[in-house]
Amino acid sequence: MLYIKESYVYEFQEMHCHQGDCGYWRAPNDHSMQGSKMLRMFKVNGQYTCEACLKEATESIQEWLE
Q1: Which domain does 35 fall in, by range?
Q2: CB–CB of 43/5 below 8 Å?
């Protein structure tokens, strides 16, 4: 079972993605992918995950289910 919810902690402090070697971080007015749009952050089973990593994980799960 996955528990996923969008997290807005970055509005108050800096958040880092905890998925592998992603390295993405987001703060109230800054992020690590300069020149690109800011990614949303989610809390997945208690760990912060960026939008790109979450999308990659859900695509992998979908492929496995098919």
Answers
A1: 4-65
A2: yes
Q: Give 2's contacts (C-beta < 8 A, 6+ positions apart).
A: 44, 45
At 24-45, the pLDDT tens digits run: 999 999 999 999 999 999 999 9
How many other CB atoms are there within 10 angstroms of residue 11's CB atom? 11
Q: Do residues 15 and 7 lie in contact, with contact meaning Cβ atoms separated by under 8 Å? A: yes
Give pTM, 2 decimals.
0.84
Number of compact structural domains in the chain: 1
The first and second tokens of residue 24, run together, are 């993405």
Which of 65, 56, 10, 47 has the alpha carbon at shortest distance from 32? 10
Instruction: Copy the structure tokens of residue 10.
Output: 């970055």
Q: Kindly state the DSSP code that residue 33 receives in the 8-state scheme.
A: S
The residues with which 35 forms a beta bridge, in sequence order, are none
